[in-house]
Amino acid sequence: MTATRERLILIGNGMAGVATLEQIIKLGGQYDITVFGSEPHPNYNRIMLSYVLEGTQTIDDIILNSHEWYEQNQITLHTGTTVTRIDTEQQLIYTDNGMNVPYDKMIIATGSQSFILPIPGHDKQGVVGFRDIADCYQMIDAAAHYPQAVVIGGGLLGLEAAKGLVSLGMDVTVVHLMDDLMERQLDSVAASMLRKELERQGIKFLMGTQTVELLGGERVEQLVFKDGTTLPAQFVVMAAGIKPNIAVAKESNIETGRGIIVNDYLQTSVDNIYAVGECVQHREHCYGLVAPLFEQGMILAKHICGIDTQPYEGSVVSTKLKISGVDVFSAGVFIENEHQSVITARDDWKRTYKKIILADQTIVGAVLFGDITDAAPLQKFIRDGAPMTDELYAELMGTGGCDHSKKKSSVDTMADSEIVCGCNGVTKLDIVSAIHEKGLTTVDEIKACTGASRSCGGCKPVVEQILHYVLGDGATIGVSQGMCSCTSLSRDEVVAGIKEKGLTTIKEVMNVLEWKQPEGCSKCRPAINYYLGMLDPVQYQDEKSSRFVNERMNANIQKDGTYTVVPRMYGGVTTPEELKRIADVSVKYNVQAVKMTGGQRIDLIGVVKEDLPKVWEELDMPSGYAYAKSLRTVKTCVGSQYCRFGTQDSMGMGADLERRFERLDFPAKFKMAVNGCPRNCAESCTKDIGIVGNDGGWEIFIGGNGGIKARLADSLCKVKTDQELIDLCGAIIQYYRETGKYLERTSEWVERIGLPTIYEAVVTNVENRQQLIERVNLALAQVEDPWQQVINDTATCEALFHKMEV
Fold this sequence. Notes:
The protein has about 800 residues and is an alpha/beta fold. The protein has 28 helices and 36 strands.
């Protein structure tokens, strides 16, 4: 008979807490684990938020542990759920949505929150922190509506926020109280070099400036400084610091100071309750960098699994970061005093700077800017208290008889036990063994296998050096061109393999095509699911679990865990009866907001999950697919039906196109627009397919994008009849479906494939065009409205929307 396992609850679904769980699982800890996270996402890489902000990554790209990971490890995950109180006597937790769950052991990992300056006006609209995905979305939305932004705080978070907002097209000024940027990590020289580099990238700075008030109506309009001067801004990011999130501990009478007070084994003042991460105060210190939090997690994991471990005695703090493309590093003492010696090298041409600080000839600190090749050895020398020698000086400063270029590609002096990736506790031996045992040849493969460079990415240069060291100078080390780190196969190779080998399921694809990770990841599973459905729309059974959460739920999840419902309005046209139903449903189900979209539809924002099927049923309208990699909208002007300039029936054609191609899966979201004349009121120039009517027929444009990476559409061809237009649109759509990479917008696809190639495939080659039309018609014959499917499927409806969580 199997003994009942102890119940372990993790409060907080962030990097430190989940990394601790990963270590517990790796060590064989036997617990029934439940995780509560306030955000509506699985565990993601908070360090990568700036990339989401600037648009080079999405939330799916920065997920560290997918929903499938929790399921595979039998972890119960409650997202969008905040633990409000712990009954430490009864060993029960209480949540904001009415749950109460018992525990045997608990880890609090609630992280930190933005410090909002307590100045007049701090609560106005347009004032945000920068700590999570919701903050990113607010910034992206603000950039679409307002020209000027101010970031208060010149630390790491402030600079990342500023760079992201500049990338989004805003005029950005960083206001910093101190005279130097990142004064807690850099000396004045490195800070000055960083400021100059960021100014070249378009960021403005006001240094030594204190903000005392925010003025405006409901929304912020300007900042007031201590000297009486002002600065206009319609959006303000508070990045003046962070503070440990200790609310649940204080509410539960667990001892706190600035953070949750813990001993050297991360135990709190209450039996069976531990704490880890940014919420913790250990020996008077609170840590805000990743590496110390993972050090805590590894010790806690061993302790909680009953394995002997050294106590946590604090961390030697080092900072290795890439800020707007600039590498910086500091460790130990970075601002010298009069009793210390300094070795420096500065190159303004190459924009590099190196400073090493000595105390009694012992290395106690360092700062690097631009070139951080020596970061790993310097960190070790500082940690070990290494003495400076002539030989070491020559190695670090590139002088004497040392072959400096050879030094940079060699890690043979590094001990096997030395930690390369402080974020995830990966040693040199872990990486070397993985390369030998699994035949790894790229940094991406090492990241997938060991976790090294998975979090902040700062150790990537050292990982690459180890790769060269193990495989030899003659090896060709390329960057993986695979779909993801699970495979070296490209999109085209995967699709070809599916065709040639007759593969019909995701598991078959991963097994036959020799995936390195047997279960895949959040990047490749949705992609394979799409490719299989695109290649065989009749036989393939869509795997819902491999779709993103919005597509599984057929609605857009919001930051508070509710959903947005967007019914279909063909060509942006609706009826009074439909409008009345929308209004009635909105009132009945307490919809938080009703908003017009840019695609001439209506958002019903704030529907709770359990109400979704009832809302869909009572609306009695088709799904607008606002959540899917599918046709979103066909925007139209009023055209010849009403406009005195209109030459074509744009509303009628838009509705016909939308009815024809709705519900079809695409590589990415897809938008269309139809104009009745060249005045372009429906903005065809920024759509995936834009159509402009004229006296002689229609002109077709493709590859437009009005998003973060804006692109004007290319003119493809002109047609005379409505039927020719519909046929050409079908051929273009199918050619994109068959040749596009998953998540690749048509703006990128047109540039990759080339307009002449597309023209030949869908316009010149009539036979090929007809075959494309036949294949798109076959796919269209299989589609159904997903809202009606759920309404008519009691079992699915119950499982997805009414299953009680305990």
